[in-house]
Amino acid sequence: MGIGSDMYRQQILDHYKNPRNYGELEDADIEHVGENPMCGDTIKMFVRLDDDEETIEYVSFVGDGCAISQASASMLSNELQGRSLEAVRGMDRDDIIDMLGVELSPMRIKCAVLAEKVAQDGIKIHDGELDVEETTTE
Amino acid sequence: MSQQAETLDVERIREEFPILEREFDGTQLVYLDNAATTQTPEPVVETITDYYRNYNANVHRGIHQLSQEASIAYEEAHDRVAEFIGADGREEVIFTKNTTESMNLVAYAWGLNELGPGDEVVLTEMEHHASLVTWQQIAKRTGAECKYIPITDEGRLDMEAAKELVTDDTEMVSVVHVSNTLGTINPVSELADIAHDHDAYITVDAAQSVPNRPVDVTEIDADFLAFSGHKMAGPTGIGVLYGKQHILEEMEPYLYGGDMILKVTFEDSKWNELPWKYEAGTPIICQGIALAAACDYLDDIGMERIERHEAELAAYAYERLTEEDDVEVYGPPADDRGGLVAFNLEGVHAHDLSSILNDSAVAIRAGDHCTQPLHDVLGTAASARASFYIYNTKDEIDRLVEAVHDARQLFA
């Protein structure tokens, strides 16, 4: 079997079909949207912070697109609960590839990392480093 | 002509394409991405190696034997391409990098000088970005306006709307001949008449038509016509812009430099004769010669036979895919389309579908096919597209459909 089938392990398909933490969050401290116009993948993430303003209490998302992008957002929303903003700022694409636990063909990596980029850009907006109007693309 | 002679000997043709023998994990490749690029037959590959092994030299510069041989072969390649598309001669055939560069040549050399506020460029909703983005940006720079001929529910051009949209303000009508997404075969000859009735020029994007059907620029009465070598059994890096000689003579060059000049002083320059006026610098020599070899190869098979073969495969693929309740196929019905079928499987993104098809060694394109605005009209961000060429078979389309079943099962 080729690389593609490995991409669609049960875990990925499960998160795609039954996304975790799916839905909008009314009292989010951070919310941000990103898209890959070429594929039509869109992901909007919502983050609620603890009282310390530095620890993530809860993450939710809404989105549309391919299985890789949506499963990645679902899994990431689980991963980020309880993490510090500092830790999220320091994440890179290898963390996403490790999280997904599958081999991705080069063309599909940008689907996988969109959610991470949305989260990181959302934090940048929160930090005042990025214009709120800016839409994230990967 | 007997019935036998009217069909392609696909088995014999496939022998000229060793790449089709490739296997991935023991499964033989099914190559259905021909609208993106076609494979290259042995005679064309041999032309390329023969050039580099035996007469590689710069053209139009050397008095030596190699340069003479390369120059003659390169110039004659223009003659061969002119013959292939029914042009009057080499003066009307400019070699470029690809269709996109050909479109840009028209837009920059003609559009930038001729367009201004109040002028209109009429395009279609099914334009490839190669012409859509190019005219959109030239219009912005000149103050001209772009208008788009809408498509009908069946994916054809609304010709009544076209007649309304093209007016005396129209300076250019730029239309795709065969849609790379819908497979629609547009009535370019009729559109040329409409354009000419209003003293406008017509540019035809023939990237998806010259490779697979007889195309005659004189019959169409096209003012400009663009296509690429790598979609017609030729190499990448070579495209063609056909232009009517009197228009090319009046137009200013697009690129300046060596080879496009006749005489240069510190103060001014005089342009070279056609088509070299538009081929500045060392041209695409080997690829140009190989394109002529591709024309020979295709003519030996017969363009009418190729057209029939593609129509047959497209009709078969359309019918097989529309049998599936959860597959949406875009564009006109089976009996009237170019050799490609774009579709979506409900609940499976085109990129996921393409990845899963890749497991069965079935190569298709997935995405927006460089027609994002058209996909907006269709109401989807992306689609899967199977596109056919001279070496494809109905068995391969069966493999495509089987792989679609696999994808459905995986995502169920």
Automatic annotation (TrEMBL), chain A:
Matching InterPro entries: NIF_FeS_clus_asmbl_NifU_N (IPR002871)
Domain NIF system FeS cluster assembly NifU N-terminal: 7-125
Superkingdom assignment: Archaea
Signal peptide: none
GO molecular function, one term: iron ion binding
GO BP terms in the entry: iron-sulfur cluster assembly
UniProt name for this protein: Iron-sulfur cluster assembly scaffold protein
Species whose genome carries this gene: Natronomonas aquatica
TrEMBL record, chain B:
Cofactor or coenzyme needed: pyridoxal 5'-phosphate
SUPFAM superfamilies xref list: PLP-dependent transferases
tRNA-binding in keyword set: no
Enzyme class (EC, first level): transferase
Domain of life according to the entry: Archaea
EC number(s) given by UniProt: 2.8.1.7
GO molecular function: cysteine desulfurase activity; pyridoxal phosphate binding
Database matches in InterPro entries: Aminotrans_V_dom, Cys_dSase_SufS, PyrdxlP-dep_Trfase, PyrdxlP-dep_Trfase_major, PyrdxlP-dep_Trfase_small
Catalyses which reaction(s): (sulfur carrier)-H + L-cysteine = (sulfur carrier)-SH + L-alanine
GO biological process, alphabetically ordered: cysteine metabolic process
Residue ranges annotated for the Aminotransferase class V domain, each copy included: 30-400
Alphabetical UniProt keywords: Pyridoxal phosphate, Transferase
Stated name of the protein: cysteine desulfurase
